[in-house]
Amino acid sequence: MRSHAVLLLLFAILSPFAGANFTSPSCGTRKTSHPKPLIVAGIGSIPAGQWPWHGSIWYRLTRTSHYYACGATLVSELCVLTAGHCVSKDGNALNERLLTVQFGSVRRNLLQSAFPVQTVAVAEIHLHRDYSPRSFLADIALLALRTKVTVNEFVSPVCLPGALGSEGDPGLSGREAVAVGFGMTEADESADELRQLRLPIVDYVTCLESNREVFGRSLSAGILCAGRTNGSTVCNGDSGGGLFTEESDGRWVIRGVTSFTAQRGWNDSSCSLNDYAGFVSVAYYGAWIQSVMRTGGEINKKEARPRLATIPTTASVVRELRISEKKCKEYRRQGLTISSSTGPGHLYLYNSSSTQGLVYYISDEYAITTADLAIGCFQTEDICRTILGTRIQKVFAHPNYTGGRDYNVALVRLSPATEPLWCLSSEPLSKLYFEGRQLKLSSVSAEAPTWLEFDLNDFIPSKRGSVVYNEHRDIAGLMHNRAGEVVVMTKLLAMLDWIESIVWNEAS
């Protein structure tokens, strides 16, 4: 959730809770005393138990890896309310076995398992029969949990409003509500801590006139409009979470489910900073919610059970760490890694004629560079040396390198390390930087599994082996080109298995 923004969207459920009560005498109350939320632009550091009904939905990618998808709201011991797009693909409910819901946590981390966190599997997905992924009509879903949650001061259901049907909930305009979620922050990063934001509910006319292109297609009696146009709103990753109001008796009621907003630009799907957000009106769909909770409702059995590879992988992944990631954490704890105060972090390789290029230490014994540079430095009697006179002891060129752009990477043994160590990026390419400037992926003119070519308008004075790094200063690629040549970068993620097998596999 951002101090500047609105939100994007994501994924439905039920019958094991047939006969469950749709409300509870203790719903919407906190068991512990917390300060009231005073939010101007999205506040984090929320104490556990302040929003005991908020949950997070996680997708399973493999047996050991999951990633955060959406928010959700507990409305009974067995029932979870979320957005339809959070639990569907192409209008069909996902395979419920791919979903896990976590409650009681104020940090976005599925690996948390100790009290007060509760992690529950999903039994069924109930997607509203009128749900339309294009118009966000009826963008609402119920999830039936396999087991009841344990209600306590950290996990408890919120209250549902009455079922108002076609008239919606007209008395809400002008009221302030609170949205909660792990969505993107003002820094365009997913929040690690749960954040909350106070938003006014806006009347339909004001909402429509603010952006007819967006709300003219989606605004209806089943939609609540809320937010401000000053940069404070929900954002990508907040989808499926709730919009809550505090009533005169101190109870909290869920009024909306975070559904959609305008995007920032035609080529930027991030949430707009200057528009209201759309929330599904829970009261409008109250009769359907109660019907599903009492009887199991109409179960959408048109489930498209997609292969795991079809689920997007851009969100945060919780998985077992690679050996390179474990080593990176170890190096960072020891203060051995590159930082703004430890530079330059590279070594020039020279032979008698000239400077050949750069290498970068990734362990105490191994440095990384391009294969063409490493092979050229080692295949003659005039073997390259560092400025300190250290000679390359051995070269490991990628076995698939044949002299072109593909697999142009090599490891050289240069022990012991005389410069800070670099970590290797283990995530798909996102933001890339070269010598302090960001390279936009939109400028890529060609690419292959192991390389990218940048079509840039200005000259980059790169040297062979120069690193391209991500926002964490982890190496994502190596420049092939000499200064003035076409800008081509090796993608190291595609060759990370091979790199790890050489550097950290003693058997090799």
Provide a brief overview of the structure:
The chain is mainly beta. Helices cover 10% and strands 28% of the residues.
Strand line-up of the largest beta sheet:
1-2-3-8-7-6
Remind me, CATH topology of the largest domain?
A: Thrombin, subunit H
Distance between the termini: 46 Å
**Low-confidence parts:** 2-22, 33-42, 163-168, 297-318
Q: Which descriptor suits the 3D outline?
A: elongated
Q: What is the CATH architecture annotation of the largest domain? A: Beta Barrel
State the CATH class of the largest domain. Mainly Beta
Would you report the number of β strands?
29
What is the average per-residue confidence, as pLDDT, rounded to a whole number? 77
Key attributes of the depicted protein:
single chain; 508 residues; mainly beta; Thrombin, subunit H; 2 domains; 6-stranded antiparallel barrel; 6 helices; elongated; disordered N terminus
How would you portray this structure in words?
This protein has 508 residues and is mainly beta. It contains 6 helices and 29 strands. The chain folds into 2 domains: 54-310, Thrombin, subunit H; 321-508, Trypsin-like serine proteases (Thrombin, subunit H, Beta Barrel), CATH 2.40.10.10. Strands 1-2-3-8-7-6 form a 6-stranded antiparallel barrel. It has a 6-stranded antiparallel β-barrel with strand order 9-10-11-16-13-12. A hairpin with a 5-residue loop joins strand 27 (467-469) and strand 28. Helix 1 (204-210) packs across helix 2 (212-218). It is elongated. The two termini are 46 Å apart.
